[in-house]
TrEMBL record:
Every L,D-TPase catalytic domain range: 100-232
Protein name, entry field: Lipoprotein-anchoring transpeptidase ErfK/SrfK
Any one GO MF annotation of this record: glycosyltransferase activity
Organism in which the protein naturally occurs: Paracoccus thiocyanatus
Catalytic center residues: H192 (proton donor/acceptor), C208 (nucleophile)
GO biological process: cell wall organization; peptidoglycan-protein cross-linking; regulation of cell shape
Lineage top rank: taxon: Bacteria
Pathway it works in: Cell wall biogenesis; peptidoglycan biosynthesis
Length: 232
């Protein structure tokens, strides 16, 4: 599959820099207002050795950043990075928690999770489908879980890219499903990890929702088969 291109931020005039800084402050302020606790913004810009990209915000190099930490300047490339975040609650979509609730917010490029007893709430940045045509919205549920999942491209994927392999075994470095996968009742739609961290926070998938491997590893044992899922 085509990978998003990455370019270093271009020098900008002081007014643009101020606008970009204001946008970031407003975004982080919205997260704090929504109840999320974020680490203090680092004074010096770092480079993530895993991706080779500049890290904006406080994140340990080589580890998955929390929501609100960008791997390239959001003012430079707002089209493909997280541009807005809206705090959500499961009661907006379901009368009861049941076995748990996952909300995949396409606009915010974020995935929310509540456990069935409401003792755990997590929110992670995610990749989203590359186009509206590939985006399916509505209610579904988790029907299967897999560790080190294998990957078989769908016929539509192979039509778009005939060079794709017939199958990639679980654990392979070129397996786009990462270390864990949650299968939805919609065929070929998953929530999964990814070894390609450049995809997170971007329109980069063929319909699935990808998380950093560190994040899916945290989420996987908490999600039960039968967990309710809404993509909106």
């Amino acid at each position: 599959m085509d990978q998003p291109c990455h370019r270093p931020p271009r020098p900008r005039k002081s007014t643009a820099a101020c606008d970009g800084a204001a946008s970031r402050r407003a975004f982080l302020g919205g997260l704090l207002a929504g109840g999320l606790v974020l680490p203090r913004i680092a004074a010096a810009q770092a480079v993530d050795p895993t991706t080779g990209q500049a890290v904006y915000g406080a994140s340990t190099a080589g580890q998955a950043p929390d929501l609100g930490v960008y791997q390239i300047d959001p003012a430079q490339d707002a089209r493909r990075n997280i541009s807005s975040f809206t705090n959500r609650h499961w009661r907006e979509f379901y009368p009861t928690l049941g076995k748990g609730v996952i909300l995949a917010d396409v606009a915010s490029r974020a995935l929310h999770f509540w456990s069935g007893d409401e003792s755990t709430y997590l929110v992670f940045p995610s990749s989203i489908p590359a186009s509206e045509e590939l985006t399916r919205r509505g209610r579904t549920e988790v029907v299967r879980k897999a560790e080190r999942p294998s990957w078989t491209p769908t016929p539509n994927m192979r039509e778009r890219d005939p060079t794709l392999p017939q199958r990639v075994e679980g654990g392979a470095v070129d397996n786009p499903l990462g270390v864990y996968a949650l299968y939805l009742s919609w065929p070929a739609y998953l929530i999964h990890g990814t070894h390609d961290t450049r995809k997170i926070g971007r329109k980069s998938s063929s319909g699935c929702y990808g998380l950093y491997n560190e994040h899916i590893a945290r989420l996987y044992p908490l999600v039960e088969v039968g967990t309710q899922v809404t993509i909106f």
